[in-house]
## 1
Amino acid sequence: MKYIISLLLSLFTLTLSGAEIKAGTGRKSITPQLPAWLTGYAVRDRPSTEVLHDLWAKAIVFEDKPDNRVVIVTTDLLGLSHEICEEVALRIGKKYGIPRANLLLSSSHTHSGPVVWPCLSTIFDFSTEDMNAVARYGQKLTDDIVEAISMAVNDLEPVQISVGHGSADFGVNRREQKDNQVVIGVNPEGPVDHDVPVIMVSASGGELKAILFSYACHNTSSNTYFINGDYAGFAQIELEKTNPGVSAMFVSGCGADQNPNPRGSLEFAEQHGKSLAVSVEKVIKSGDLKPVRPPVKTDLSLVSLDFLPFDHNFYQEELLTQDKYKQRRAKLMLEAYNKGYDVTRYPYTVQVIRFNRDLTILAMSGEVVVDYQLKVKKMYAGENMFVAGYCNEVQCYIPSARILKEGGYEPESSMIYYGYPGPFADNVEEKILGAIQKVMKHSGVRPTK
């Protein structure tokens, strides 16, 4: 009954405003052919030969007028590369006239999905045959994402959109102080955000069409050789089982320093996925959702982040280490340095999609720590915020000033596996928050006084 009342209120609001918004959904399986190398954990020493459940690229297209379409794509992957993001944007721009700022690509960050080359390339030493396989997968993945978007464009119909918030508590801060250093462990006193934003899209007849939901936690409940979407994959499966015909789409929050707790098995992945799905269902059935109206505004900004000054002697020393990952990173750095490539900066993307004054989606690229999510929601306390990490390119960790100062895996040693110099310079948070304020301002959002 509450759900029906909420839907009727949405319809009434849209009728009063005279506005209409359309939406369409599409999906393509992106499960790789077997055998397939999985990514996310450097300790794996063989490819996967079994699929637990399929992986998907899912797209939803919103249209508030014929010349303004906004696309959100979710993928059951660790992350997307610069090449794939740019190629998808190019094709969609040519085919439908959709500008880059209107295309949001996201990854669930499952650690049980296939390699997307060249992301995290330093953890692999592929044979020619394996390299051919991951290259073919990347090409097909690009085609599949474009096809999912095309399916969504062809599925456009009038809809009502509403938004609400739930909560899930299995995420815990993983930056534990131990022996005067920060290690990956369990820190129950560390910052977390247990918010579960839920966007509900319903067709004009009232039937549920799509659910977009988020949570700020690493997608690392298990460490297996089975291809699966981890807790986010199980959550989507559960929601689609409970709501036949619905497209359930997971957009990861800023959970780079958050881990599921407990973790370490497929049973925990399923357990956390089901608990997240229950949280989403509670929001949908609560009758407490707020209508989301057009118009839709977007903006995207590229900011140059600085690394600490480049020291080629440091990488010469890394070449002499017995650590193969440090050696591979050093080779990349010195090759780039000797070819005259710029190894002092990193181009970083922030993006915003705003529906009237009802909902603001802030999309940040990379593995973003929870500090940013908490700060942004405080800065814009008057906005209904949906803050997402792992959007567009996932090229490295994005630390806050606090975490940069503390050190540890996220700001320092993770850069070895991502093949970047590091850490970032002290002004990394200042630059990112400046870029966020810029795109928010261009979309009509002002900080809360």
## 2
Amino acid sequence: MTEVSAHKKCCSCDCNEQVPEKHFKLSELFNMHWDEYCKHPTDFIEPEQYKAANAIRTCQTAVLGVDYYSCPECGEITKKYHACKHRFCPSCSWKDTLKWVNAQVQKMMHVKHRHAVFTLPHDLHPLIRKNKRAIYNILMRTSADTFKDWIRYKFKIEPGIISVLHTFGETKELHVHVHMIVSWGGEDIVTGALKEINQEYVKFGFLQDKFRCKFEDELIRLYDTKKLSHNFTDRQDFMQYVKNLNRKGWILHIEPPMQSPKDVITYIGRYSKRACISEYKITDISGETITFKYRDYRNRDECNRPKENHQTLHYKDFFPRLLQHVPLPNFRIVRYYGKYNQKSTINESNLYKNTNTEEVQIEEPSALLCKHCNCLPEYLYTVYDLRLRNERTEPFDASRHEHVIIRRLQNIKQNQAA
């Protein structure tokens, strides 16, 4: 584990002694209050939410198992706890994201890319809660089609698009939007040659209206085919609701083109499959409350950057607010369109060169070198905590450990003889 870089003063005096700032884990709050919350939940707990909560609680604990390793030279014993690998877990989702970034950037076209965000009006939230899967599918498809159709028509280019669904805002309230990485260029529709879009100007109003119309058409189709759960009295009532949506905020945000593969990696990593809350943002867990920091976009500093603020919530309010963002079962929150679709192919000469790609390094616990001998450890056995999990454990085999002791004695004799 790396050392904590953030520090604070040890006391209120003027001494220079520094102590590490405490880091909190989300599992602490779940371990303290989840069982009690389940007896009287604020909202109905879905099966996938139970699964996510249990994964967070057992991640990196003996419940999932502990692998024991031994240095082949000195016999030093180390252990590594199993991870839950759940995509809602703050620690596991980040490592999974880094691996995905390194693999994905090598499949991208050698052109500039832009980061775009499509956001649904908050007046849609009651309907979204009743039709999550259907509306999320519509949002991801229509937002990608908006850019894809516009670029194909205006520039005669087939772009590549990576879309990532996010359902949360800074304070973890429902805030449904899609982050998109759009290639600012692509392969010519006729010749297949790589072409770059030279202009940065975009008619935001045109794309916003195009997106709104596509989304509303799909929503109306859901209603007409009786696939939409709702409380509308009749079609006229529903159409009046859609008409009111036209006057709401259909927000489109587009950032300037990103110049290098490193920029692309940064954005993909920041807005890809990360968990709803990052543990480094948790500043306090005490009693029945949790406090986390967030960026307040309504209040900005002199440099127009959002100020940092803190939110404190009781666990009865925090759990339902957090768990409403657990991904639906078998729902792909990351999707690929245009030239980045798996069914499409990109000419090898149009891809980023691997030599220009800076990979994000990931520390693998199983590959940690022995601090004494600087060599890779060897696997010995796995142990499960049967008090917490009713599963059979692999029986301890002393013969696996015997060769380590023998080798260690041989090394000692060789050192003495030398």
## 3
Amino acid sequence: MDERNPIGIGVKLIDAADAGNVTARLLGGVAVAIHSTTAGQPTFKRNYDDVDIVIDKRSRKRIDTVCMDCGFLPDTEFNNLHGLERRTYYSEENGKLDVFIGEFAMCHTISFDGRLDADHPTVSLADLLLTKAQIYELNRKDAFDLLAILADHPIGTSDDEMINVERINAVCSKDWGTWRTVTKTLDTVDDMARTEPGLEAQRDAILARVAELREEMERAPKSAKWKMRAKVGERKIWYELPEDPDRHPTMA
């Protein structure tokens, strides 16, 4: 999508979804770019391979119409096999579109039940951070998306242009595996903020916010299930590794 306008494409899709009574929000790098001006700076700037959106489960039967109205044709074979959880569309002009239905499942599963009204046209910053931070084998693209989010947004207790720690804890304090991967990711981001060139202007803010988020996650009350799984710890694998890139994509 080097010569395309993925942000414009994404916003157009959400506008069309709104008009079609479909609850949809942007995910991935496009959503990060909408929220974070830092994502457009030279150290952070990158191409976006596709557009990712999530819809609520009630909208599944209506999403084909919205996508086709925007010039995206369904991958019929893939959608017939996986259409209850994820759907894929293509456009010669606009590239690839991935649609996640109700949840994002990769190394861990992030449910969006009751969360899609938290922001518009993207998912909330906390949910955006979770979908990136749940990646066990974090690549540079996703790491820099996280760095951009943390550079531009404070930790707080609402979804109004801040990273809602209550949402982070609601997910991570119930499931030790998700908590462990997210904290591992935050360690990686912390290390990158300290060592990567070109981050001097953002370094202090990123490090302070990573430390604050880690502290809040550490002291949050944990569920009985979390505590039982924590006793096993890393002796048992706690994450899934995507085997089929078409089934479990790294988000654009």
## 4
Amino acid sequence: MSLFVSVAGLAFLILIHEAGHFFTARAVGMRPRRFYIGFPPAVWKKTRNGIEYGLGAIPLGGYVKIPGMHRPAPSDLDVHFGPALYESPRLLPDVERVKRSIAQGDFATARDALRDLERSVREAPLSANARRAAERGLAELEDALGLDAYWRQRTWKRLVVIAAGPGANLLFAIALLASVYMIGIPSDASRRVGDVIPSSPAAAAGLKAGDVIVGVNRIPTYDFKEVRDAIHQSEGQPIVISVLRNGKYVELKPARPQKTDGVYTIGFHPSAVKYKRYGPVHAIGLAGKDTWLVTKAMGSWLTRVVTGSGRKEVSTPVGIVRQSSKAVQVGYREYLQVLALISLSLALLNLLPLLPLDGGHMAFSIIEGLRGRAVGRVVYERVSAVGIALVLLLFFVGLSNDIGNIRGG
């Protein structure tokens, strides 16, 4: 059940991100063509009002297809219509007319020529693969030549549409954190154990509900904060918990704390927890402060990743789901906090100035706005290749970490 909740939570964060792009694009006059959760192949899809909605079989993200992300180039026709021209050379005059119009920047004429090419493709004797490639090319060029194409919009519109995805995740993170403050956060607790999480280090050490923790590593503790701090400061080294059980002093077997969301814990809940609740305004303020602290920490993490010292902290959706599953077992407050952290991380990572991330598209939109003309497709493709390589490198590093964590328990 906790795994299902974790996967559903991650999918919901992706939905929020893509919905930010989707609704903002519609608001500024760019009608999206597709809205997908997950990547193709599609396991379900439905077209409504000219927009295809679907669920992809690869649950590692999602996407919104906004028309005409790049200025059309004559070389686009060579890519899409090569097989069709080989099988039906009579398409060449129509293809060349479209190419010539695009090269001259005469997009009105290019649209008319594209309609003639569409008729010719429909009548030409083509194999299934050649026809599929040609029809895909026609659809791509129609989008790129349309008045609602992304590349034709003013810079502010493009920036707003791209920033809306990370912005939606950022606002959702603040809203989640504020809701936790309004529900109530632990302000104090006794040293008495309320319950022990099964299969946790605490359970393995022999900690039981009702025990009163009086020491960590034979150093006395007088409240829950001291217990919690002593466990965290162990940095994963084995610790000895001393308890009073039925009035008798007992030292438990050594327990090795596990790191969960940056905090070392052994897996138990204290009893007699008191919660402090905040009003909406105060809660939003506290959530904003937490968000800023996490943002600064994320900047420090990126620096460590670049230098190599933060390699072990990289994770993928596998690790994210695993950690959030643990948070679900701890309690709904903890899960909401973890979900907020994941949402904030999605927002910040997507703002990195790398293609195909949102930050890369924003950077190119600013560059094109300053230049007064579009950047060539070749430049986009080269920069995208570098960005994709870096993203894949981070993914495989994170996946190796996640597999190692799973094997290590």
